[in-house]
């Protein structure tokens, strides 16, 4: 639903129909607020800005850039993986994949 409203916002913007574009922008922003998706590493709202996302084995979603930060903090520790910052379960992140 969110992607649909973002696409319609862009389409109406391209067609120079500002009222319809603004309507779909407001609707998309409302959906983002209602879902309250936040990166568990940096705390930023997910969906306000287009960004690559990654998920941990527990199902929590984080920014890809935060995944690299999370995995880098485990380098130098023998076979230790940093847990999810939200639920503390062991993550699947391999430090060598993000180094």
Question: What is the element layout, followed by pairings?
Answer:
Elements: H1 2-14, H2 18-35, E1 53-55, E2 61-63, H3 64-72, H4 95-98
Antiparallel strand pairs: 1-2
Keywords: Metal-binding, Zinc, Zinc-finger
Protein name: RING-type domain-containing protein
Domain RING-type: 39-88
Features:
99 residues, mainly alpha, 2 domains, two-stranded antiparallel sheet, 6% strand, elongated, disordered C terminus
Characterise this structure:
GO terms for molecular function: acetylcholine receptor binding; zinc ion binding. With 99 residues, this protein is mainly α. It has 2 domains: 2-35; 53-98, no CATH class. The two termini are 35 Å apart. A hairpin with a 5-residue loop joins strand 1 and strand 2. The chain is built from 4 helices and 2 strands. A two-stranded antiparallel sheet has the order 1-2. It is 44% helix and 6% strand.
- Helix proportion of residues, in percent? 40-55%
Strand percent estimate = 5-15%
Number of DSSP helical runs: 4
> What is the ordering of alpha helices and beta strands?
HHEEHH
Biggest sheet: strand arrangement: 1-2
State the gist of this model:
This is RING-type domain-containing protein. The protein has 99 residues and is mainly alpha-helical.
């Amino acid at each position: 639903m969110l992607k649909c409203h973002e696409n319609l916002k862009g389409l109406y913007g391209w067609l120079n129909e500002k009222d319809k574009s603004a309507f779909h922008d407001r609707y998309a922003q409302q959906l983002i607020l209602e879902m309250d998706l936040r990166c568990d590493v940096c705390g930023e709202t997910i969906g306000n800005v287009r960004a690559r996302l990654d998920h941990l084995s527990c199902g929590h979603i984080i920014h890809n850039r935060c995944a690299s930060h999370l995995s880098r903090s485990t380098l130098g520790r023998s076979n230790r993986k940093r847990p999810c910052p939200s639920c503390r379960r062991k993550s699947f992140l391999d430090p060598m994949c993000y180094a």
